[in-house]
Amino acid sequence: MRNIDQALATAIERYRQANPASERIHADATQALPGGNTRSVLFFPPFPPAMVRGEGCRLWDADGHAYLDALGEFTAGLYGHSEPAIRAAVAEALAGGLSLSSHTAREGALAREVQRRFPSMELLRFTNSGTEANLMALATACAHTGRRKVLVFKGGYHGGVLAFAGGGSPVNVPHEWIVARYNDLDDVRARAAPHRGELAAILVEPMLGSGGCIPGEPAFLHGLRALADDCGALLVLDEVMTSRLSFGGRQALLGLRPDLTTLGKYFGGGLSFGAFGGRAGLMQGYDPRGERAWQHAGTFNNNVLTMAAGLAGLTQVLTAERLQALNARGDALRGRLNALLVEQGVAMQFTGLGSLMQLQPLAGPVRSADDLAAADDRFKALVFFELLARGVFMARRGFMALSLPFDDAACDAFAAALEDVVNVHRPLLPACD
To answer: Which of 189, 303, 347, 378 is 20 to 30 Å from 236 at the Cα level?
Structure first.
């Protein structure tokens, strides 16, 4: 398909020429960082944009271009940029000193607010990221059960050292992994059967996030709950991304109660944050008043700025009503975009739930990572660079996470930009049968 290659090369070259400052910043960074990068997901060739400012749901780069921010910091930017209540809380915290070498009142208040939203987290502890939260949840499961095997899912992502695209990553932590197919209980049961007495945990996202915004089917997720009970394993629900789908995450929407839940992203108000928690009987193992308490350290677990920003965001900004409205807006936008693609005869679609979605360069049902094997990434790349040229920023892989400031006008702007891209390139895009 020579034409798609030519169109993509043209779009990339236009991007390069339009962004000399970003290219220079990236080249300078390569002198100290491998590939000029310290966070793999942000890189795409020839170089990523260097952003210098954000406001609401808008971004500005080093070359002076303004963008509609449809990426939302990979779900961490739920509040948008420069939310006034969070800025005020951070400023107040700064005035009191950054590193206070002890407890503060804010950490207990933030924990109680998280607990109020997630009743399954009867007790919880903070970390610095969702990756750390998942590592600690698995450590808890192993300590509690005395087992080492963990069942996960192809396409699942639980942090930089807990990634299962293609079945696994060479830098994953060395648990004994059992990798099953998402949304396929028969496959899960068959793979778990030889290890029933050795399984410490089932670790699952209620929707594959980095794996393509593929929702877990309710019967599948409840089936995992039953399997965990039957095997004596712990069900660990990774809601680092899906926590934003309702006031109590997707577990509240499904009536699903895990043994442990992990959180991250926006709960820190835009600063580094993670949390893990669950049944009191499990989490009591970390009570330092006990003689044989499990150790859980972390200099910045209760850092002053994150505690202040997180508490302000949850108590002053993120009401159940605002979350519901945001997710309804996301569902409407995804439906609108998919209707546009169908109307234009383009075999592409946006998968996802609520305010989370991802562009897939194929038609038909998408239930697991295996269903994405036939996707041709060139089509997604072309749409990405053409949207950038029209002032719309999302992830190179096609991922989107709407923020609270992403209003109806922003949805209209995104839909108009995509429609223009489709109109210009329709002959090159995959056609519906």
So the answer is: 303
Three-class SS of residue 302? Answer: coil
Mean pLDDT of 252-281: 98
Tell whether 245 is covered by a domain.
yes
Q: Tell me the residue range of the domain where 7 lies.
A: 2-78+320-428
Asked whether 121 and 277 are in contact (CB, 8 A), the reply is yes
Q: Are residues 108 and 167 in the same domain?
A: yes
Verify that 208 and 226 share a domain, yes or no: yes
At 359, which helix (H) or strand (E)? strand 356-360
Buried b (16+ CB within 10 A) or exposed e, 330-339: beebbebbbe
Which pLDDT does position 1 carry in this prediction?
46
Q: Is the pTM of this model over 0.70?
A: yes
3-state secondary structure of 177: strand
Q: Per-residue pLDDT tens for 116-151?
A: 999 999 999 999 999 999 999 999 999 999 999 999
Same-domain status, 89 and 71? no
The residues annotated as belonging to the active site are 157, 238, 265
pLDDT of residue 2: 57
Same domain, 31 and 72: yes
Q: Per residue in 183-222, pLDDT tens? A: 999 999 999 999 999 999 999 999 999 999 999 999 999 9
| Domain presence at residue 272 | yes
Cα dihedral 380→386→392→393 (10° resolution):
50
Instruction: Assess whether 247 and 338 both reside in one domain.
Output: no
* pLDDT for residue 167: 81
> CA distances (Å), 324 to each of 74, 330, 357, 412, 422, in order?
19, 10, 16, 19, 30
